[in-house]
Design a protein that fits this description.
Organism: Pseudoalteromonas aurantia 208
Strand order of the largest sheet: 1-3-4-5-6-7-8-9
Order of helices and strands: EEEEEEEEE
Number of strands: 9
Radius of gyration: 21 Å
Number of helices: 0
Protein name: DUF4488 domain-containing protein
Distance between the termini: 69 Å
Helix content: under 10%
Structural class: mainly beta
Shape: globular
Largest sheet: 8 strands, antiparallel, barrel
């Protein structure tokens, strides 16, 4: 007769919780505030029009001012519960290429509010509306 001893083994599960990314989709610019040397300037649609597309891993945008091309760019990004961090990899604004910008963000219904601070000072605040 062969006896087997069975012991209790502790099993540790490493579970990654996947939270749906609320930013995936196409967004249209609504309004923004931007810090300049002379103070805050504001912009609103439709004079300034911009579309930003967010996929699982990348973002891209194109911006026009009164129907004329202004900016385009994109790259990869990271997202957590409070920050959307853009890693700009391409575009026509040369001083942004290679930079990372960590925006705080909040989703309210179909609106995406994001704010960028640098050294404790406001750099920009924008509102985007989801269009799909």
């Amino acid at each position: 007769m062969i006896r087997l001893k069975l012991g209790l083994a502790m099993v540790v599960l490493n579970i990654n919780v996947v939270i749906a990314n609320p930013l995936i989709g196409t967004w249209q610019f609504v309004k923004g505030e931007y810090a300049t040397d002379k103070g805050l300037v504001t912009a609103r649609a439709p004079e300034l029009s911009s579309v930003k597309i967010i996929s699982k891993s990348h973002f891209s945008y194109i911006t026009q001012n009164n129907g004329k091309f202004l900016y385009a760019g994109g790259g990869s990004y990271q997202l957590d519960n409070t920050h959307f961090t853009e890693h700009v990899e391409y575009g026509n604004v040369n001083n942004l290429i290679g930079k990372s910008m960590a925006f705080t963000y909040q989703i309210e219904q179909d609106l995406w509010h994001h704010t960028l601070h640098k050294n404790g000072k406001l750099v920009e605040r924008e509102v985007w509306q989801k269009i799909n």
